[in-house]
Specification:
Blueprint lengths: L1 H9 L11 H28 L12 H24 L21 E4 L2 E4 L2 E3 L5 E3 L4 H16 L5 H4 L4 E13 L3 E14 L2 E13 L2 H18 L1 H13 L3 E4 L5 E4 H18 L19 E4 L7 E5 L5 E4 L16 E4 L1 E14 L2 E12 L2 E2 L10 E2 L7 E11 L8 E6 L2 E7 L4 E7 L4 E6 L6 E5 L5 E7 L3 E9 L2 E2 L3 E7 L4 E6 L4 E4 L2 E17 L2 E10 L9 E10 L2 E17 L1 H6 L2 E8 L6 H13 L3 E4 L1
Parallel strand pairs: 18-24, 25-34
Antiparallel strand pairs: 1-2, 3-4, 4-17, 5-6, 6-7, 8-13, 9-12, 10-14, 11-14, 14-15, 15-16, 18-21, 19-20, 19-22, 22-23, 25-26, 25-29, 27-28, 27-30, 30-33, 31-32, 33-34, 34-35
Helix pairs in contact: 3-4, 7-8
Length: 626
């Protein structure tokens, strides 16, 4: 054995043929070991990569694997598209309908796509948020890809002799600013002939700006919730396109058509919303500071919205003059002070964009009593605002019938202490639902084609309410003055305890009436030559006086009020009023009402104008059904 070892050692020689020294032999041995370790590491890495890299799949199995990978990529891209177009949702939250009191549902139909509101007011007047977080979006996307990966159809390869099997386990998604990563654990086995491969993990990367656009959208939303800049623009539009408050020197009423006002307001809101911008001239009225540059805002007149104004008489807004009534001759002039209160609600779709990708979500814009709603303390998290209407625990049955005892399907609400809660809609005239507890609240039923019905009801305990409502009948109106057909200006009103309807004649020649006791009033206006000259009046008042403004010491201070010349172009020149009971049967069988009133002298002085108002109080009228 010793000789054998010597022969073996003799095989390791220097380049000149002499034997290696002992130290040199140790170095060579070390290099051989390191080389073996490197080769083993390379082999191990290659083994670990099998199943995770496409190039590890045998060439004749590559086609079905590539098809499967492309399917996973398509499913991921589809999920991303849904998140972009549906406000960060793939599976939509539970749908909540709106009501006649709040027009918003929980989703906005935009070009056939239901997009969840991030902020809205529910049908029963509760403010709600439904803003998805990034982690929630990732979970939705992962679930979507996981559920749809099993639908990647590879059946066409079976006809080519491939054998395939799938076993889905789980998926994980990560949304970054400029891409989305999907890791899905799924056993995919492919074999054909002598070749086979088993892939256990798949990683899909889809380039998309979803994360970046979501962050931009969230910054716009938080700015709106903090500053209510959309509501501020809405208030400006309201005061520009609708009469809100003011004073005019005039002796005949100011009259507006509410339908025309709302139409102008709709057009103004739509145009102004589309004009909002986040870049450009900072002095531009429509420039909104602090927004990402890739933001835009959309509104459409075709979307659900609500407009209310008070006081109003049906579709008419009217402000009556002061100074021409009996006993006010000392004024020497006429003026009209008006103040109308509006509630305006409409949606705005907010979009952030990058290239061809658009992330979008809607919010509700709400103006209450001419003022923006109160801002929510919000950080973009889901939140439900506590409200009286939320605590419904008193079961109540509501029945709604017309005067013939036929059931009426109506929207039912419950008013208590200035808060209105939407309860629901009757079916075949009956609704059984829970009410919030209240003493002497008012149950209100509204149905198209019927007068609003209501009953006082205390909902402390369970109970039952029956509401009767009258059917509305559209009746044409014609006006005669001194027995002759009249086509000039007039205001005709039908007032009862339940409602008041006013029309501006001759622009409006029909009115909707229901059974009841009415006071019918007609004011006829004609062109006059009345000119009220310029006048100066002295106004005096007591003001504080004395050293250091000692309390209780005053002196009289007078100043002059200059009233400019005014021309009364329209003045009261006829009319009268009379009480009538209008039966449902009479309204149903008639097509029109003819009203005949007497004329009054066309006033040429303020005194004659005041006399006309005195005479008016004594005049009646004739009403004939046809």
């Amino acid at each position: 054995m010793a000789d054998l070892k010597r022969e073996t050692h003799a095989l390791i020689l220097n380049s000149d043929g002499s034997p290696l020294s002992k130290s040199r032999r140790s170095q060579v041995t070390l290099f051989i070991i390191i080389g073996i370790v490197i080769i083993a590491a390379v082999i191990l890495i290659l083994v670990l990569r099998v199943g995770n890299k496409v190039d590890s799949v045998p060439a004749n199995l590559q086609s079905p694997y590539d098809s499967f990978s492309k399917c996973l990529e398509d499913k991921t891209s589809l999920g991303v598209k849904l998140l972009l177009t549906q406000g960060g949702y793939i599976g939509l939250p539970e749908f909540e309908p709106g009501s006649s009191y709040m027009p918003f549902s929980s989703q906005l139909d935009f070009a056939g796509t239901n997009v969840p509101y991030w902020y809205y007011v529910s049908g029963n007047n509760i403010q709600k948020e439904q803003v998805p977080s990034r982690s929630e979006m990732e979970k939705d996307l992962a679930k979507f890809v996981e559920e749809n990966s099993v639908r990647c159809n590879l059946d066409s390869f079976l006809d080519e002799g491939y054998k395939l099997s799938q076993d889905t386990k789980s998926a994980k998604a990560v949304i970054k600013d400029n891409l989305v990563e999907i890791d899905i654990d799924m056993g995919l086995s492919i074999s054909k002939g002598e070749d086979s491969v088993s892939v256990g993990n798949h990683k899909i990367v889809v380039p998309t700006n979803l994360g970046k656009l979501y962050d931009s959208a969230l910054s716009v939303y938080n700015k709106e919730q903090k500053e209510l800049f959309l509501e501020q623009y809405a208030v400006d539009a309201l005061r520009l396109y609708a009469p809100v408050d003011g004073v005019e020197i005039k002796c005949s009423p100011l009259i507006w058509n509410a339908d025309e006002i709302f139409n102008d307001l709709e057009e103004g809101i739509e145009a102004n919303t589309l004009s909002l911008k986040s870049s450009g001239d900072k002095n531009d009225y429509f420039y909104v500071e602090g927004l990402p540059e890739n933001a835009r805002f959309i509104n459409s007149r075709n979307w659900a919205r609500g407009f209310e104004v008070d006081p109003a008489q049906g579709p008419v807004l009217m402000a009556t003059p002061v100074g021409n009534q009996p006993g006010l001759g000392v004024l020497g002039f006429c003026y009209i002070a008006y103040h109308f209160v509006y509630n305006v609600k409409y949606p705005v779709l907010i979009q952030t964009y990058e290239g061809e990708e658009i992330f979008q979500f809607p919010v509700a814009v709400v103006i209450q009593g001419n003022k923006p709603r109160e801002a929510l303390i919000s950080s973009g998290l889901q939140e439900e605002i506590p409200d009286f209407c939320k605590y419904k625990n008193s079961m109540t049955e509501v029945e709604v019938y017309d005067l013939k005892n036929s059931p009426v399907d109506a929207d039912v609400s419950y008013d208590c202490a200035g808060t209105s809660c939407y309860i629901g809609k009757t079916k075949k005239g009956v609704l059984v639902g829970e009410f919030p507890q209240c003493v002497n609240g008012r149950v209100i039923a509204k149905a198209e084609g019927y007068e609003e019905g209501s009953e006082i009801y205390s909902s402390v305990d369970s109970g039952r309410v029956k509401i009767l409502t009258s059917r509305l009948h559209e009746i044409n109106v014609s006006l005669l003055v001194d027995g002759q057909k009249y086509s000039g200006d007039a205001v005709i009103s039908f007032s009862s305890n339940e409602s008041s309807k006013t029309i501006v004649y001759p622009e409006q020649k029909s009115v909707e009436l229901s059974q009841g006791d009415y006071q019918v009033q007609v004011y006829v206006y004609k062109n006059s030559t009345l000119v009220l000259g310029e006048s100066v009046q002295e106004q005096c008042m007591e003001v504080p006086y004395g050293v250091l403004g000692i309390v209780g010491i005053t002196k009289k201070k007078c100043f002059e009020i200059k009233v400019p010349e005014q021309v009364v172009s329209n003045a009261l020149s006829g009319g009268g009023k009379q009480n009538y009971y209008l039966a449902d049967s009479r309204l149903q069988s008639s097509n029109s009402i003819q009203i005949d009133v007497e004329s009054l002298p066309v006033p040429d002085s303020l005194e004659q104008l005041q006399v006309n108002y005195i005479l008016y109080e004594e005049r009646g009228l004739d009403l004939i059904f046809k």
